[in-house]
């Protein structure tokens, strides 16, 4: 069965990212039980059977949300899991951000308290359903004891326990009784045939507040006595402040204070306008340090040198070198990809108040416990003296897994009397990002006389985000994220050898960026499979289909994409269709892009057809929205995305030089889902990594010109 959605606008695993053993202490067991004081239970105003659920006497259910909402729909889909098993209406659940607590609220797939890697739903799928089911069983048991009947004669529905006789008790009436009980050890979850909410297109719970303006993002925090600050950081990584003339800045009306740090200067004012004017008036002389001559070409030179040598072996199957020697045809290619910025709509910001040995923060973060720890270290206070208020995030994409925004705010707040909100300008946000790594690949394949691949050798070099962000996850020279999409390919290739060389760019820190490793590897592998199809003189989709004869599940998704896209039907001149296939984030996704290349070389993506098997679909509307969002993010990267360095400085500064896809450039997007009862796969990043090679392959179909470097250069495609 296939579920189909379309969104038209004519104008408009990673393999396990972190190894389980990388978790602190190695344990991935979520504890549900919270201590219950029997003497106090009878008078309890709430029933808290575990760390995630609280039921009050008025029947209100509160979900202590261990993940953060940044547009991906978790604040609707995760409550759906609770509501399904607890047997309450979705609207009956209110949300409360989980406090920093790595033991109670860590992500079981990451081993830390964080939202990322497209695994919020994967991580929540079983634990949060078990939390809801445990609460339901305890409420049923409480009602049965009150009635003096067997619990098997009772069931729950719509926030009530109902006896076979028809008598009922609301959950609110059972709070005190349920609080006395011990959580059950054995929990039976609903089977898919009994789902009433999971699988339906529930309305987004966070949408009304975002429409009427009541939703609070990090940038909206306004504690009493707040001042606003903005800053200039060293334009060259590793640089320092040499001297500052702040005379003119202090004369600006509304400017209250100038805060000088080792490598930055902040202006504190009554409002953002005054702070920005004060910043413009500052005369700062920088000591650029050792990276003052760094250029993009130097970064690429180091990467290209690395792929000429040997790296850590990520996968070795058969004997690729020996098989290559006997190949009838050998195909080689080199690819390179640039640094990419996150450019979130909400720029980096954090409100901080440091006083009397305590520190309080207001922000939107994907890693609240990390922020708490970083703030404590910066302020020099104990961890328990740091309070973090988490908020909605206006775009994360991995950027807010980092703590640098909070650290800067604490550094400034330590010199300010009262709370201060530090807001980065767009230029600071783009020029001091932690970028998606830049990559260089040297890839080679040997084909037999029928054009089928006998051997595949891929050597690539780039930065490791995991080695910095969570060192235990980097083992034997391998970053599991950096090789995701380069190994364990879906295709039947008997001899495979993949090597990864970690090369850190001088002074530049890299970070997680929507789909990270697959955003690089899927582009390279799927572009190169297309090159093999061309060398074999085969249709690229038919060529992939033949290589999937052993893999009927993946082949079925490819066939669905072919059918829905009208693969093989005629297109206008200088139009082309391109296909990509990926297995990442626990989901299978095939994307077909229809692209037009104008005579001046500009590329327009007209239509994208997506076929996906992502396991159980919790909220079809959210899945569709995430695919759309990921496609737009990826199209932007393919057409415009590039961070370049000259004289140690990032050359892009705002949306005029780091361009976003405009609404009139947005393609029509169709999403077709394969029905499944398997556990859910990841959705937030899948659409981004697969669309880029689909576009590149479509450009080749339209022009005969192969793209091995991004972003697309129109000069190369002119007639």
UniProtKB/TrEMBL annotation:
<dbReference type="GO" id="GO:0016491">
    <property type="term" value="F:oxidoreductase activity"/>
</dbReference>
<dbReference type="InterPro" id="IPR052516">
    <property type="entry name" value="N-heterocyclic_Hydroxylase"/>
</dbReference>
<dbReference type="InterPro" id="IPR006311">
    <property type="entry name" value="TAT_signal"/>
</dbReference>
<dbReference type="InterPro" id="IPR037165">
    <property type="entry name" value="AldOxase/xan_DH_Mopterin-bd_sf"/>
</dbReference>
<dbReference type="InterPro" id="IPR019546">
    <property type="entry name" value="TAT_signal_bac_arc"/>
</dbReference>
<dbReference type="InterPro" id="IPR008274">
    <property type="entry name" value="AldOxase/xan_DH_MoCoBD1"/>
</dbReference>
<feature type="domain" description="Aldehyde oxidase/xanthine dehydrogenase a/b hammerhead">
    <location>
        <begin position="212"/>
        <end position="290"/>
    </location>
</feature>
<dbReference type="Pfam" id="PF20256">
    <property type="entry name" value="MoCoBD_2"/>
</dbReference>
<dbReference type="Pfam" id="PF02738">
    <property type="entry name" value="MoCoBD_1"/>
</dbReference>
<dbReference type="InterPro" id="IPR000674">
    <property type="entry name" value="Ald_Oxase/Xan_DH_a/b"/>
</dbReference>
<dbReference type="InterPro" id="IPR046867">
    <property type="entry name" value="AldOxase/xan_DH_MoCoBD2"/>
</dbReference>
<dbReference type="InterPro" id="IPR012368">
    <property type="entry name" value="OxRdtase_Mopterin-bd_su_IorB"/>
</dbReference>
<protein>
    <submittedName>
        <fullName>Isoquinoline 1-oxidoreductase, beta subunit</fullName>
    </submittedName>
</protein>
